[in-house]
Every structure is written in structure tokens, then in C-alpha cells.
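cache lookup: miss for this entity combination. No prior model stored, computing from scratch. Input as submitted by user K.M.:
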Amino acid sequence: MPNDHTVTAYNEELALLDKRIAQMGGLTEHNLGRAFDALMNRDPSLADQVIKADKEIDTLQIQIEEQVIQMIARRQPMADDLRHIMAALKIAGDLERIGDLGKNIAKRSLAIANEQCPRKLMFGLQHMVESALHQLKDVLDAYGGRSTDLALTVWRDDEQIDEMYNSVFRELLTYMMEDPRNIGFCTHLLFGAKNLERIGDHTTNIAEIVYFLVKGEEIAADRPKRDTTSTTLFTPPAS
Amino acid sequence: MPNDHTVTAYNEELALLDKRIAQMGGLTEHNLGRAFDALMNRDPSLADQVIKADKEIDTLQIQIEEQVIQMIARRQPMADDLRHIMAALKIAGDLERIGDLGKNIAKRSLAIANEQCPRKLMFGLQHMVESALHQLKDVLDAYGGRSTDLALTVWRDDEQIDEMYNSVFRELLTYMMEDPRNIGFCTHLLFGAKNLERIGDHTTNIAEIVYFLVKGEEIAADRPKRDTTSTTLFTPPAS
């Protein structure tokens, strides 16, 4: 039987793992917000900071991975603890991808730094990023508090981001069709919007991981998915 | 000490893990090829098959994950075996994403089923998919044969896919600028090309995992990256 000392050290390692996830989540959230600010305000110096800061997120993921492998090797975790450790590993993977997608938005802000983008187009994107940040914060809270209710709310609300994406997608294509000179920067905004939609999907993944961690079973429903842009051909609205 | 019987059973489990990776890789490769055929030939019924077959890839990933967790819990692997098991887990994650990106190409083929796309545009995409499939096959062989040489070749050659993507990106935007009626279907081809570029990145991830599995250290060089489309604003060529 493990003695009290071993148990305490083990619990400290599990707590460190969660601390690192919280830290990685906080950094990811912060960096995504700044990436969007760089895009909104055409701020190349902020974009550079975001691109550099993404390395910290990557480093945290590597630390989490190394800790997980060490814990498995040394502690030989079973049942709940193993599920906890594997959940942390997977969440770190999703956070790393969210970080990359945020970094890509920062890069695109560099490309369109000298362009004038209509306020209306940017509003749609702003709503998307606000929802994405809100969802990310909630899913990290759901993990921290092991709340399946909050995880389910995040999981269900992803379709709102999908609907916003459909609408931004249509606005951008309409704008491109109105004047070919808009195509260059609108393509960057299109990929930026797609990144935000993907960030929503990774957040939904995390919600599913939290649910499974607490309940030991998958969410018993089909995933809500309202992004219809892949399967429909956009034609310009009749004027 | 484990007896011979235990060791044999353990080796059989490791072999099963690799068999499942090979199977998942084969399916992923096959489905990506068919997704592109559906796009090239505007074949909605093939696209439907691809979308359905992606579920098999997802199921294999879940089986691999479950096997990994069971092996860790029951066998308490150390050192090389633990590295082997964790490599399989990560490769399965990358293959699942490649499957999703292929499925998305099939969905886009449904959206543009009734469109006439110029042969030249499709040629660029075809070269991309041929390279992506070739790289995927090689990296699976590199894993099967634990070949760092082959893994390094795959890792270096990804920049060729990036360069093709840059060129396809420019062709598509030029075509969109020439006639706004091309914007709808070109947007689908643009996302399709981006998916192929991402598939190249996931293949490169797998090459890094294989290298680390065999050598126990990361590849000692910066990752080649030639996709410049995120950071540049495309303007139409002077006519």
C-alpha cells in the first residue's frame, strides 16, 4: 500500500497538472484576444507579440506531455486518476491548436495592416471572437470545477458560433463579389473567421473531455453542427 | 519478473497497436484519394461514401485510444514501450484529423457538383493531393519500418506542398478577380487547397513522432515552412 507521503506527493502532481492546464488555458485565451485586437486595429507590433507568445503555449504543452508520461511511468495510475491524466493530455492538445489558430489570425493582421476593412464586416468577426473567448473561459471553468452542466452549456452553444460563421461567410463573399479589389483582404478575413469556427470546435472537444472525465461516459446526443458553408455553393443575393 | 507467457501477450498487444495504426493509415490514405476523385469528377455518390467511411477512421482512433489506456493501466509500460504506445496515440490523433480534412473535401465536392472548374485550376490541386498521398504513404512506411531516413525525407519534402499551395492560392485568387461569378466555387477550392496544406502539416507531425520514437530526441533543425499565404496580401498581377 502507498504510504501517506506517496499519496500527498501524487495529489500534488495531479494538482500541478491542473495548474498547468489552467495556465495554458489562460495564456491561450489572452493571446487569442490580443490576436483579434491586432486584426481589428491593424497593429503589427501587437501581432508580433502574439506570434512570440504562442511559443509559451507550446512550451506548456510539452511540459504537460512530459509530466503525463512521467506520471504514467512512475505512478502507474489506475481508473479515475488515469482518466484525469489522459483528459489533461487531450485538453493540452486542443489548447495548443487553439493557440496556433490564434497565431494565424495575428499573422493575417500583418498581411492586411494597410487595408481599410468595412466596420460591418469586422463586427461579425468581433461577435465571433467574443463568443469564442466566452466559450473558452467557460470550458476552462468547467474543467477546473468538474462541472458537467457548464460543459454541456458550452457544448450546446457552439452552434451559435457556427451560425455567426455562416453569416460572416456570406457577408464576406458578397463583399468580394461587389468589387474584385476586396478579394485579397477578404480572403484573409475568411480564413480568420474559419479559424474562429475551428476554435469553437476545439472548445467543444474540451467540453466533451470534461463531461467524460466526470461522468465516465460520452454525451448522449449528436453534436450540434450548424456550419453549412462546406456543403453549399454561395451565389450572390439578387439585388 | 514477468514470465514468457506475459511477455508474448504484451508483444502481441504492441503488434496489434501497430496493425491498427497501419489499418487506420491505409483507410485515411484511401479515403483522401477518393475525396479528391469526388471533387475532380463532381461525383456526389462517391462523396457520400467518403463521408460515411470517415466514421470507420474515427472508430479506429477510439479503439487505439482505448487500447492505449488499457495497456498503460494493465502493463505499466516503461521507457521504450511507453514511448511506442504514446507515439501510436499521437499518430492516431493526426490520422483522425487528416481523415476529417479529407471528409471536408468530399463535402465541398457536393457544393460545387454542378460547376465547371477550369482544368488548369484543378491540375494544381491534383499535384497537391498526389504529393500529400505520397507523403502520407511514406510516413506510414517510416513508422512501420522505424526508418528515420524516410521520416526525415517526408519532413523535408513538406515544403514542396507548401509551395504548391502558394501557387494554387494565387491562381485561385486571380481567377476570382477576373470574374466575380467564379468566387463561389473558387472559395471551396481555396479551402480544399488549405485542407491539403494542413494534411501535409499533420504528415510532418507524424514524421517528427517517428523520428523521436526511434532516436529519443527531436529533429535538430527548424521546421521547413514555405506557406506564405497567411502573411502576404495578394494583389492581382499587372496585365
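stored under new cache key. The longest helix of chain B spans residues 4-40.
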